[in-house]
Write a structure and sequence with these properties.
Radius of gyration: 34 Å
Strand content: 5-15%
Strand order of the largest sheet: 3-4-8-5-7-6
Number of strands: 12
Length: 566
């Protein structure tokens, strides 16, 4: 034996059964941390993928910068791709009122760079491009409305003259694309059925604006490199070019991953995560430390004998610490593996049984961050938990070990209470209470575990805040794809008669109905929507009515309406 530390593997083999409880505690600690961080990482990946698909892969959008500044920003090392984006004939209210037409259809024109297609926004058909100055990408309704296809030539009519373009592709819809905020709505050119949108080269767009005497408000989209310090890069760009906060817009989900957000509901998550993190670590420390105290108490004579043959207090402390880390060689891999398997099971359950936005969550994914956090935090927790037992072992007197009095030598002030229960139970309670520090650790461990368990009940409320489910949200939605009210009204009565259907309701919509207003407004049309009695009740239940609204006037055949306005 070269050193006292050589006894660690020997002691582990001899006291294998006595060490099972400690190993189990370490496994549970690593398992809990790995599972939680792996689940968080899975949700992060899902939300990031959804955010990119719906709102585009960009981090910063800047308003009001010049071309020279944009060129300098594009050359920065932390910038992956960037693109100009500018729109003509579409205001903030999605109003198209200028004389720009393609074959009689009112047209919105948009200037972009090639990087905008595919790299930044993903709602373009394969092969779509604006490399050539006469190339144009149309919204998908142009195929039916104008009868054009890829390769066809179209003519844009403007007040200053006509411009010929060749169709290189179409903006595609579906799968939830461009329905989110953060630039998704404006950059997708949402137009009505009788209108079309045209994406073209930014230089051609500027030439058309110049020749027609138009002014616009260009925006500059920036996608940063992976593994870039987002906060540092954002601060450097804003400082170098003196950009005010109101001119810099962030992609909420992508920037929040780097700890940058202007949304209160995201900022409020960080303290909650920090508190839960501390609770998990404290529960692990209490649980492992309590088990180790019991283990050390059983081996006080062993540590005393080590002191008799020359081991110093510092060597005993080091011995206990390394012995604990030796248990990690078995416990940490088991805890990590259990965490991964549990993460797969939870992700599969969310994907199959919950669905909705969670249907895109990755199932069989191995989170390097989750495993790393489980290993690091697990080992750190074990190391912290070993401090008190190691010091206790170092305090054992060699004389007490030799005389056989290495146990608890405290003066007995009163006898064991045997009036309630059996003698074995009374003795167990007496010994547990007598070791007050160990009792405190174990009680604290159970208390924190209960708190953590109850914290998960708050998860339901948290999910409801992040993904609110209204009473009016249907489990199944049947609608005409072209919003032409082509679904037969008799289908509603048939569905109501199906077993298992609690409620069924339908709506009819008429768009662009001519209307006059007592006060001057921008629009001369309204959209009409029908609601039955049940749906009116749901409006009140979901708190969708403004203060002062009177639903009583809405029932039966009245001349009252509910108005939605911005």
């Amino acid at each position: 034996m070269k050193s006292y530390l050589s006894l660690i593997p020997i002691a582990a083999r001899v006291r294998r059964k006595q060490s099972k409880m400690i190993i189990l505690c370490i496994v549970l600690s690593v398992f809990l941390v790995t599972t939680i961080f792996s689940l968080v990482d899975s949700v992060r990946k899902m939300e990031t993928a959804n955010a990119i698909d719906k709102g585009g892969y960009w981090h910063i959008r800047i308003d009001g910068i010049g071309e020279d500044e944009a060129e300098e920003i594009a050359m920065r090392s932390e910038v992956a791709v960037s693109s100009w984006y500018d729109v003509l004939n579409l205001d903030n209210n999605l109003t198209i009122d200028k004389a720009y037409y393609i074959e009689g259809a009112q047209t919105v024109i948009c200037g972009i760079e090639q990087a905008f297609i595919g790299d930044i926004m993903h709602y373009f058909s394969e092969g779509a491009h604006v490399i050539d100055e006469n190339a144009v990408i149309l919204t998908e309704n142009a195929q039916e409305l104008l009868g054009v296809n890829i390769g066809d030539t179209i003519t844009l009519h403007t007040p200053a003259g006509d411009y010929d373009f060749m169709v290189s592709g179409f903006r595609i819809s579906g799968n939830g694309k461009y329905v989110s905020s953060n630039g998704g709505e404006t950059s997708a050119l949402l137009v009505k059925e009788h209108q079309v949108g045209a994406f073209m080269n930014i230089h051609t767009f500027r030439r058309i604006c110049s020749e027609n005497g138009e002014t616009s408000a260009p925006q500059y989209y920036i996608q940063l490199q992976k593994h870039t310090n987002l906060k540092k890069a954002l601060a450097a760009i804003k400082k170098q070019y003196g950009l005010p906060d109101e001119n810099v817009h962030l992609h909420t989900i992508l920037m929040a991953a780097g700890g940058i957000t202007d949304k209160d509901y995201i900022k409020n998550v960080y303290p909650v995560v920090g508190v839960l993190f501390l609770l998990i670590m404290a529960a692990g420390v209490f649980m492992i430390s309590g088990s180790m105290n019991s283990n050390v108490a059983q081996r006080l004579q062993f540590f005393g004998m080590l002191r008799c043959i020359g081991a110093s207090k510092s060597q005993i402390i080091r011995f206990v610490r390394l012995e604990t880390l030796n248990w990690c060689k078995t416990a940490v891999p088991i805890g990590s593996m259990l965490g991964i398997i549990t993460t797969w099971a939870v992700n599969a359950g969310l994907k199959c049984f919950v669905g909705g936005e969670l249907s895109d969550i990755p199932v069989f994914t191995v989170s390097a961050a989750g495993i790393l956090c489980g290993v690091v935090i697990g080992v750190a927790t074990v190391f912290l938990a070993a401090q008190a037992p190691a010091k206790r072992a170092a305090k054992v007197s060699p004389v007490a070990a030799v005389t056989g009095n290495a146990g608890d030598t405290k003066q007995v002030r009163h006898a064991v209470n045997m009036r309630f229960g059996k003698i074995e139970t009374a003795l167990g309670i007496h010994h547990a209470v007598s070791a007050k520090k160990n009792l405190l650790l174990l009680t604290g461990s159970f208390a924190l575990s209960i708190i953590l368990f109850l914290c998960f009940s708050v998860l339901i409320a948290l999910v409801d805040c992040m993904l609110p489910q209204k009473a009016s949200s249907p489990d199944l939605d049947i609608a005409s794809a072209d919003h032409t009210n082509s679904v037969d009204a008799s289908l509603l009565d048939e569905i109501k008669g199906i077993d298992g259907v609690a409620h069924a309701f339908g709506r009819r919509v008429c768009f662009d109905m001519p209307a006059t207003f007592q006060k001057e407004v921008q629009s001369e049309t309204i959209d009409l929507m029908s609601y039955d009695d049940y749906q009116l009740e749901l409006l009140a239940k979901d708190s969708d009515l403004r203060k002062g609204s009177n639903l009583a006037k809405m029932y039966e055949d009245s001349h009252s309406v509910l108005v939605i306005w911005d």
